[in-house]
Amino acid sequence: MTAGDRLVVGVDIGNSTTEVCLAVLGADGGVRYLGTALTRTTGVKGTPASTEGALTAVRRALSDVRRRPEELDVVLLNEATPVISGLAMETITETVITESTMIGHNPATPGGLGLGVGTTVSVADLAEHPVDEPAVVVVPPGWDFDDVAAAVNAAVRRGLPVVAAVLAGDDAVLVSNRLDTPVPVVDEVSAVEKVPLGMRAAVEVAGPGRTIRTLSNTYGIATVFDLDPDQTRQVSPVARALTGNRSAVVVRTPAGDVTDRRIPVGVLELRGAGRTVKVDVDAGAEAIMEALARVQPLEDAHGEPGTHVGGMLAAVRDTMADTMDDGEGVDPGDIAIRDVLAVDTFVPAEVRGGLAGEIALENAVGLAAMVRTSRSRMKAVADRVAGALAATTEIGGVEGEMAALGALTTPGVRAPVVVVDLGGGSTDAALLTAEGTSTAVHVAGAGELVTKLIDSELALEDREVAELVKRWPLAKVESFFHVRHEDGTVQFFDEPLPPHVFARVVVLTEEGPIPIGTRHTLDHVRRVRREAKRRVFVVNTLRALRQVAPGGELRQLDFVVLLGGSALDFEIPDLIADALAGHGVVCGTGNVQGDQGPRNAVATGLVAAFAARPS
Amino acid sequence: MEKPAIVLHHARCAPAAVLREVAAGAEEEGVPLRVQAVSGDGEVELGHTAALDSRLSVGVGVSAAGGVAVHHAQLPADRPALSVPDGEAPDWRRAGRVAARVVTGLPLV
After folding, report:
1. Which of A80, A229, A504, A548 has its CA 20 to 30 A from that of A586?
2. Residues on chain B touching A478 (C-beta within 8 angstroms)
3. Which pLDDT does position A100 carry in this prediction?
4. A391, A397 Cβ separation under 8 angstroms
């Protein structure tokens, strides 16, 4: 280090990671990058607690190149992206069975084959049942398969036509194998005691690899139960709920009624561009996004009080108020929502009134919302850093502009350039022109929404597992010694794989295979994962690029550089590049300083901006 | 040549109730089971020799004390796919199902 050289460090405190970039600025204005460091952000970014992580990272970068903190001339801190985001999801349909009228699940091993129609009777009362009435036997828990088969065989010998059986336990094949006359048998009916007795019922079991034909067809049910057109209309949701099953039971009870009603979701009110547009959330994501396009730039969004959407936006506002609160209190009413992303999704929900944990896919709408905050909260952090390192600190630059400057250190990139930061809560884009002017936009929805979509669409109910599904490629464990990856290639292992992953769909993490608790096939999980990423990141990247592109024309853009944690994802950059391929845009994942990948752009940009400044 | 089946090796005085439930578990999953009384004891060891004897490479061992182990011929002798040294009827039934599921390539219940 010669006289006149200055040692500077750029510090970028993000939502999840804190990144630093250490460099020497020569007296001639040249920049020599010495090294970088990355740590987990301590506490919430911008709060005094986040100082600790910043200091750790700075000290690590210094010790890597054997420099002492006293040698530092200037510490450059970023002004954090002035947006906070929130998420909400609401189901807009619901299937309710008011009386027990159907069992539609897929036990792993139903018994027998075909369709049986008769009157429900408990196995305990079989001996007294009149022989002129075909019987559907209902077996409560605790009955041994040998005893059930013996009771049914005795009844049949007495002349009673037993046409089907419904079992609580998991032994349909065992019972079926012991019957003199085989009949369809459905098992694993956990709430078998709720099956009404003395009622007309139909039981259908399809052969292996087949699905039921009669009970999944509305007119099939109408035929079996001799229904009039009004009654037929009522059972049509039953048929729909049974579609795709290998076995099913429908019991006709006089008061039986299945309703498929839409919950009033409410009206979303979008205000901007001098007008207010109201849109029914029921209408789905596409209609909401169309309405949003008409009021750009959005000034605020409200949900009709007392409806689901009202609750959704209130919840989003509340979390935002909590995040922004710096001790002086923030009134959720003061928060103006500046962007929303609506996504159509579905939520597998247990059918209310089902007898065997039936699941119906309900439609839902996911909403990501974003607010801008004008508060600068870096001052407190800067003061603490200055105190601990005995160096001058500066808070500088708009984050988007800094990211663009950092991205320019990627080999093969020149201005004008657009950087797209694929973050956790929001997707941020910034255009830096050849003249050095910059425009930044922020749109709602990013990695956290992807995780939430995966979590709900696969019914994982476990954010951690959903996060794993998002981050790692899938594989199917095919034996104790090999897995088949989602691209079809096979990998062998020297050590046997643990029994709990045998034959399961797994994510292959660095710690080994982790099973995903789902009955879905690998292909289905993969499709859900890729669709979630496409609906959030591809849609948002295009939205953001249109906002910064001259005239909203993507063809006007030259270089697009992807940055941020999700730019490290194994498929998101490819999905985005595919979507942009038709627009003649050069798009790729950034490689800051030629070796940092999509990391460190803001920290590097802070140093570059400082170096370019006349001192 | 023997038909393809899971092979169950049990100690001569293994409890009949255990054998019944294991057999029921395999039957429910639709995989044939061949039962053989052998000299020797220790469910894991019995299971492993049974697996080596099975054309499907899957074996079940039942000890005199009623312990059950499910084994695969390719697994190390001391590392069974499932071991139930001291269980109840549902555990024995489950062992039979697990053996069948190793054959059919379904997740072990």
Report:
1. A80
2. 105
3. 46
4. no
As a whole number of angstroms, the distance between CA A436 and CA A415 comes to: 8
Nearest chain B residue to A520, by CA: B107
B106 touches chain A (CB under 8 A): yes
| Torsion sign (Cα): B51, A107, A508, A510 | negative
Residue written as token pair 């290639």: A489
CA triple A595-A597-A598, angle to 5 deg:
145
- Which ipTM was obtained for this model? 0.93
Six token digits for residue A274: 């001098």
Q: Mean pLDDT over residues B32-38, rounded?
A: 96
Q: Cβ–Cβ of B72/A173 closer than 8 Å?
A: no
Contact A588, A575 (CB under 8 A): no
Rounded Cα distance between B83 and B60, Å, is: 10
Which residue among A109, A481, A503 sits closest to B29, beta carbon to beta carbon? A109
> B81 and A500: CB-CB below 8 Å?
no
B23 close contact with A: CB closer than 8 A: no
**Per-residue pLDDT tens for A276-292?**
999 988 888 899 999 99
Select from A282, A88, A131, A120 the least CA-distant residue to A203: A120
Q: Can you point out the beta strands (E) in A193-266?
A: 200-205, 247-252, 258-262
CA distance B109 to chain A (A): 9
Strand partners, A13: A18
| pLDDT, tens digit, 9 for 90 and up, residues A520-570 | 899 999 999 999 999 999 999 999 999 999 988 999 999 999 998 899 999
A142 touching B (Cβ < 8 Å): no
Strand order from edge to edge, sheet including A298-303? A275-280, A267-272, A298-303
Please give the C-alpha separations between residue A219 and each of A83, A105, A226, A227, in angstroms, as whole numbers. 54, 20, 10, 9
Give residue for tokens 């690998």: A522
Q: In 3-state terms, what secondary structure has residue A468?
A: helix
Give dist(CA A427, CA A368) in Å, integer.
11
Which residue of A lies nearest to B72 if distances are taken between CA atoms? A480
Q: What is the pLDDT of residue A95?
A: 65
3-state secondary structure A341-363: EEEEEEEEEECECCCCCCEEEEE
Cβ(A16)–Cβ(A348) below 8 Å: no
Q: How far is A170 from chain B (nearest CA, A)?
A: 8
* Nearest residue to A563 (alpha-carbon basis) of A409, A346, A457: A409
The DSSP 8-state label assigned to residue A296 in this structure reads: P
**Which residues partner with A524 through β-bridges?**
none
With contacts defined as CB-CB under 8 Å, which chain B residues touch A476?
none
Which chain A residue has the Cα nearest residue B74? A480
Question: How many C-beta atoms surround the C-beta of residue A337 within 10 A?
Answer: 25
Joined together, the tokens standing for residue A111 give 């018994």
* CA distances from residue A68 to A7, A22, A24, A64, A71 in whole angstroms, order as listed: 10, 12, 14, 10, 6
Of chain B residues 57-86, which have a CB less than 8 A from chain A? 72, 74-76, 79, 81-82
Q: Which of B20, B28, B33 to mutate to test the interface with A (most CBs of A within 10 A)?
A: B28
**pTM greater than 0.80:** yes
**Whether A106 contacts chain B with CB within 8 A:** no
Rounded-to-integer distance, Cα A276 and Cα A291, Å: 10
Chain B CB contacts of A170 below 8 Å: 28
Beta-carbon-side half-sphere exposure of residue A587 (alpha carbons within 13 Å): 25
Q: How far apart are the C-alpha atoms of A337 and A323, rounded to whole Å?
A: 15
The token duo for A597 is: 């990948």
Coil/strand/helix, residue A209:
coil
* Whether pLDDT at A101 is above 80: no
